[in-house]
Amino acid sequence: MKFKKVTLLVVVMLLVGSLVAGCGARSEQPAADNGGEGDKAAKQEKIVIKFSHVVAENTPKGQAAVMFEEKAEEYTDGKVDVQVFPNSQLYNDNDVLSAIQQNNVQMAAPATSKVSKLFPEWTIFDFPFAFPSTEKVQEAMESPEIGGKLFNMLKDKQLLGLAMWDNGFKQMSLDDQPLYMPKDFEGKSFRVMSSEVLEAQFKALNANPTPMPFSEVYSALEQGVIDGQENTLSNIYSKKFHEVQKYMTLSNHGYLGYAVITNSEFWEGLPEDVRAGLEKALDETTQWVRDNGERINGEALDKIKADGTLEEIHELTPDEKKAWMEATDKVYDDFEDIVGSDLIEAVKALRD
Ligand code: LMR
Asked: Is the CB of residue 231 below 6 angstroms from any atom belonging to ligand 1?
């Protein structure tokens, strides 16, 4: 009798084991068995979407990822389980795109600057003072000459661009002196995202650019490995960069936004109703980021001011802005061959 019970138990365990193994990486086990219809639904395999990003949760992208998770699960009737991994928990800047290509994660939203590692044309968003407002960036992304062209090229490398999420405009900070005029940059080292245009921007100001993953910036500033950095206010505040810098210039000199990217084969292999639910969730989230990015960055500025750790927050004057623009304008010519004159002209037309 006892033997029979144990044998039965082993058989049941083997059966359950083979079911788990058969589920594969894109499914998950049901919640505890409580019987009834709800349980039947829970027992259906879920499609797991791992969403990896590098920023904190209290930023435009951090909040958008959580919103997408909630909406995606709702609009697919629980057929999808979105798992968000913030703060570089899963992948760092340098490897997230190849992780998507290999379907190790299904979604990410790298800064457009980082997409330029695979597709140099994407560095168009890094040009200094290219966009006077986020509305102009959105106009660019919606135009076939810019957004259409950029999203199309992703397909060559098993990637699919789903949406563009805003963060906002970057500001400069430095540890030991204010940044008013181009000469103030001379000889200082600044962290940049991996983008040749961003490197060129600082070289044009006679500064030394240091490409570095986002997760390493705080300690590099703290230890004096670099003197300064550029980022949006929400990124500066949420990662406490303002606590290890003394001077900030509100310059709005460059745009920071995200390409929401997936693996094209994974996306096209999804059941149609699931894909439709995900697209609806994405559309609504994209609209939310558009409506709220500026607010979140504004609130971050208020908190930075309230912390009182910076000696000075300087707003770039029109004359100073003109001098910064003149000093960095050569970057446009230097990258014409890499980015293409048609893209540069299309962006310049928006600016003018
Ligand atoms: C950075 O590296 O500074 C940004 O890409 C971080 C982010 O994703 O906003």
From this structure: yes
